[in-house]
Amino acid sequence: MNAAGQLNIHSYKNLRSRSIQTVSLFDHEELRAELVVLPPGATVERHSHTGCHELFDVIEGEGAFLVGERRFPGGPGKCIFVPAGEAHSLHNEGDVPWVLRVTYQEQFGARHLARWVRRTLQRKLGIRF
Fold it and tell me: Is residue 2 within 8 Å of 27, Cβ to Cβ?
């Protein structure tokens, strides 16, 4: 989805699936989001994302986040921020699906400035490069 809009994230989940489900909710410039559903006992192994921050919002179920060496329980309403480059893993410790909304934000630095300026000029002034 590139334009403003709305979604009902609950319409995407398949609670009978035994595999991890990932559904794209939106993808716009430096920001994107997915719905992730982990069935009971499922694990997303330790990994990291270079140049991309992650924000996890727990919608339903129970699980655990391991961020660096810190463990955080994750129940409904919990919000966990993982900075770009930080190793993390997820594990559904409950007996029902663990439903997460994951928002990814590209890390912004000096190397991104030219791309941002070009996009802004194209969008606001209609200038094409």
Answer: yes
Tokens of residue 73, six digits:
């329980």
Is it the case that residue 49 has pLDDT exceeding 70?
yes
Residues 79-90: what's their mean pLDDT? 97
Pairing of strands 43-47, 88-91: antiparallel
User: HSE-up of 53 (CA within 13 Å, CB side)?
Assistant: 11
User: pTM (2 decimals)?
Assistant: 0.77
What are the tokens at 31? 């920001």
| Cβ pair 52, 104 in contact under 8 A | yes
In angstroms, the CA 95 to CA 62 distance is: 8
Helix/strand/coil for 104: strand
Distances (CA, A) of 68 to 20, 62, 83, 86: 22, 20, 10, 6
